[in-house]
Design goal:
Length: about 240
């Protein structure tokens, strides 16, 4: 089965993904074959201490659909995402999908993101907590942080999404241009929540995804940054200064 060619790409920050690199790339390549198009930007920085960079370099020489972006100046995961998004815009792509590597996010969900974005929606947000979604191989702590983060954000910021913390999401080019011109406050994983809050008035739809997170670790620094950014936007809302893009 083939699909009409669509000008899309995916942004994937990678760090210490040597173990799952081959099956992840194979799955993503299969989707690009099926979709008759697509490109992948693999963003790697000094946070990766294994052979991930080497594997990315070898891959891009074999398959031009993959481009490695070496970004040693990245200070955090948010920098990695933004570096990839700028590359996608420079590449002229109309639809851009953000996702995690290492099989945390299943590439087989990409066609659904593309379909949603082609049906009049400006954004498509992955959700583990709607019908068809799931969260497996994850610790209770990760599950609790995701559910509690969503509930707390919806209460304090007035959003209504079922999943406010997933990193699997897609955007139209025009939305990304506005997003990259906005001074984001997040330095860690609250980035996804901040983005969804700022884009809450865009035409959007949640997409069911299957998420696997074997690592239970979420740093205290990331949690603290999340509370700081959440409190900042809550105060703005109380003062009738709620921000949006």
């Amino acid at each position: 089965m083939t699909h009409k060619r669509i000008n899309w790409c995916t942004i994937i920050p990678l760090a210490n993904e040597e173990k799952d690199f081959a099956p992840f790339v194979a799955s993503l390549a299969d989707i690009m074959d099926t979709m008759n198009g697509g490109h992948a930007y693999l963003v790697v920085d000094d946070a990766s201490q294994d052979r991930t960079r080497e594997l990315c370099e070898k891959l891009q020489t074999k398959d031009r659909r993959f481009t490695m972006i070496w970004a040693p100046n990245n200070k955090n995961v948010v920098d990695a995402y933004l570096t990839g998004l700028r590359a996608a815009l420079d590449g002229g792509y109309d639809l851009v999908i953000e996702m995690d590597g290492g099989l945390s996010h299943d590439p087989r969900a990409i066609p659904m993101f593309i379909r949603v974005l082609n049906e009049g929606n400006e954004c498509a947000f992955g959700s583990r907590f709607i019908n068809g979604g799931s969260m497996v191989d994850s610790s209770r702590k990760r599950w609790f942080l995701s559910k509690a983060g969503t509930l707390l954000t919806n209460i304090l910021l007035g959003t209504k999404m079922r999943d406010m913390t997933s990193g699997y999401q897609g955007f139209h080019r025009e939305v990304l241009i506005s997003l990259l011109n906005y001074p984001l406050l997040s330095k860690a994983h609250f980035y996804q929540t901040e983005v969804r809050y700022l884009l809450r008035e865009k035409r959007m739809m949640e997409v069911p995804i299957h998420y696997r997170a074997a690592s239970p670790r979420v740093s205290n620094t990331a949690i603290l940054n999340s509370f700081r950014v959440l409190f900042h936007y809550f105060c703005q809302r109380i003062l009738c200064r709620a921000r949006r893009i």
